[in-house]
Structures are given as C-alpha cells and as structure tokens.
User: Fold PKD domain-containing protein from Flavobacterium hydrocarbonoxydans.
Amino acid sequence: MNLNITLKRSVLLMLTLSLGTLVSCQPDEVGSGNGNGLTATNVDASFTVTPVEGEVNTYILTAQTKGVIVSKWNIGNGEYTGKFTEKISLPDAGTYTISHTAIGTGGAVGTATEEIVVATSDPLKGNLVQGGSFATAEDQAKWTVLNLSATGAAFWSFENNSATIHSPGGWAQEGIYQAIDVVKDKEYTINMLVSSLSGSDETWFEVYAGKSAPVAGVEYKDNKVMGLSTWDGCAKAGFSGMLATVGCVKNDATGTVSNVVKFDTTGKIYLLIRSGGNTFTKDGITVSKIELRGK
Assistant:
C-alpha cells in the first residue's frame, strides 16, 4: 500500500516538472505577433532621389530593402505597387511630393516622403492635350462627345477635376475625343489617371490615337493604343492608378501592352476614349490628368 502511494507521488512530481519546463520554454510576446516574434513592429520606408545624368527631369527612386516585402509609390497620380528602384519622369515644372509605403512582415506598414522641385519644364515633353485635367468649363469644352449609345443610356459627366463614363450595361457605350497635331516618326507616350471603386464584367475602356475623324454612331477602331478590358484581366475589381500601370490592353502597333505611339505623317490625329460594357461598374470609370507627350 505504501509502495502504491510512493509511485503515484513520483508520477505527479514528474508531470509537474514537465509542465513547468514547457511553460518556461514559451517565447516572450514580441510586438503584435502574439508571441511568435514574426511580425515587425515598424518598417523603414526611407528612400533616396537621384537625378539621372543626361536625362531631363528624370529621377531614380531607391528604397531601402531591409525587412520590406512590398514597395508602393505615389508620385502624385495615385499609389501603385512598384519595385524597390523606380525611374520616374517629371516633365512639367513644379514641386512634387513623392510618397513611398513599405510593407513588412505580418503587414506592418511604414511611409516616407521626399520633395522634388523641378525648376524648368522639359521643352520636348510638353503635354499636347488641352483640358486634360477637366478642372474648368474651358477645359471640358476642349473635348467633344462621340455619341455611340442610341438611347443616351451611356454618358460622360464632368466634375471634380475629372470626367466619368457611366453606363447601365447592356453594351451601351460612349466616347470623348479631341484633335491634336503631331510630327511624323516622332514617338509619343499617352497616359492618364483612371479609377473606379468597383469592378465590372464584359467591359472595356479603350484609348485610340487615329488619323480618321470620329463619326457619331460609328464605333471608333482606328489605332488602339492602350486601355482596360475585363477579357484581358483588368477592371474586374476596383482600381486606381495611371493607365500605363493598371491597364492590360495591347497596343495595335506593337502587339504588346505599351503606351508608346508614333505616326507616319505630320498633321492631325484624334485622341479618343471609348468605354462601355455588358455589366458596367455602378460607380463609373473616372479619368483625369490625360497626357500625350513627346518621348
């Protein structure tokens, strides 16, 4: 009888020691990682700005990489996911606030900003688009509406320094355009800020730079340069950014996703945006800061 009691006490003592050892081996809580030590408490988002030698108003942004998983940039046209080293061009004179957001382990976020002062505009890269900001009635008047929806179901509205294409779906579409003078064989780039709070299905937003004049009621198809397309995999969910970054439509001339265009004659071309779809976003697609510049 006494032997049984001794054995039970010995087993109890061993269990107690084992539990004590397990508790003592647990790591102390670190930051917000519930004690696993895997979540960073802060992320260094600092970066440097270096002018590119021999190139006008062009800069290299270089972010520090230690502890950073994702690098996001905003040069004034909306935030986008980029690389740790980004090359940017700021052709117009002005003061720019460059923002960098670094995302680290466990979703920790850090943000840093730097200011770039551009003293003189690049004379070769001036914006040829008039009223591309839609800021005033005069800006908005630079654009002509191309009526493509017979019932007027699809339409463009102008407000808040932007233009928005609205469509009830059912393939209703509408366009806007303006004429621009270009030089033979000179390369140009086209870009614009585009956004929508929600996605679409069977929807397009296409940008053309063609020599043929638009005709009301006739779907424009002359020289597609870039755009959004749910068939090609973009605009299915909400988006915001420069079209050259968030777009996925291939350039007719190159067969690739590219915003570069050139022409075989000197003279007038038509910069045209045509958008519509079957299940169109309820929030519309908004555009601003439209540019056509010499490359």
Residues 1-38 have pLDDT under 50 and may be disordered. The longest strand covers residues 267-279. The chain has two domains: 47-118, 137-294. The CA atoms of residues 153 and 167 lie 6 Å apart.
